[in-house]
């Protein structure tokens, strides 16, 4: 069984993330969404809220595709999380060249830690390339319309958070 790990903070999960999840499903038998605790980033939503949002989105994707998606919170090294869930593949989404530079460094470090775990990059769909959780939160904070960037339940959660 080919298991992939798609890690991120998902604060919040966006349509860009969902695009990557849907396309990653074609590469693996099981996709694990690793929701990083990452206290250093000071997330808007706490871990339980982010896991619940990711789980709800993944349940809809799994129902539509028939694929297996698990949501797994983690706080350890990414490579250790991959080992913990039995992943042989780490999936990363790229939006722009700036993403690639950081991701390139991460791949080098991860390969030094475990060269058996491969990293695969998926480019975001052209319609989703500009979507970043940080920008979505800023738009929501200023009471802008985020419906083009996140699903309706996530948009509602953002509205409630900034009410």
Describe the structure.
This protein has 163 residues and is of the alpha/beta class. The protein has one domain: 3-Layer(aba) Sandwich (Rossmann fold). The chain contains six helices and five strands. The chain has a five-stranded parallel sheet, with helices on both faces. Helix 2 links the parallel strand 2 and strand 3 (68-74). The longest helix is centred in the middle third of the chain and has 19 residues, at 47-65.
What is the number of E strands? 5
Strand content: 15-25%
Question: Mean pLDDT, rounded to whole units?
Answer: 93
Q: How many domains would you count in the coordinates?
A: 1
Gap between N and C termini, in Å?
Answer: 45 Å
Q: How does the helix and strand content classify structurally?
A: alpha/beta
Per CATH, the architecture is 3-Layer(aba) Sandwich
CATH level 3 topology = Rossmann fold
State the low-pLDDT regions, or none: none
Order of helices and strands: EHEHEHEHEHH
Radius of gyration: 15 Å
- CATH superfamily descriptor: HUPs
- Please state how the strands of the largest beta sheet are arranged side by side: 3-2-1-4-5
Inertia-based shape: globular
Under CATH at level 1, the class stands as Alpha Beta
Largest sheet properties: 5 strands, parallel
Share of helical residues: 40-55%
């Amino acid at each position: 069984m080919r298991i992939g790990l798609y890690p991120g903070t998902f604060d919040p999960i966006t349509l860009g993330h969902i695009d990557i999840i849907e396309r990653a499903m074609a590469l693996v038998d099981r996709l694990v969404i690793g929701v990083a605790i990452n206290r250093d980033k000071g997330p808007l939503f706490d871990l339980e809220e982010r896991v619940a949002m990711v789980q709800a989105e993944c349940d809809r994707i799994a129902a539509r595709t028939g694929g297996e998606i698990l949501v797994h919170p983690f706080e350890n090294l990414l490579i250790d999380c991959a080992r913990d869930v039995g992943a042989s593949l780490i999936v990363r989404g790229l939006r722009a060249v700036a993403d690639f530079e950081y991701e390139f460094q991460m791949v080098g470090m991860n390969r030094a830690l475990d060269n058996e775990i491969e990293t695969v990059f998926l480019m975001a769909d052209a319609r989703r390339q500009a979507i970043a959780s940080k920008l979505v939160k800023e738009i929501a904070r200023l009471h802008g319309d985020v419906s083009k960037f996140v699903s309706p339940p996530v948009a509602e959660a953002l509205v409630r958070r900034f009410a």
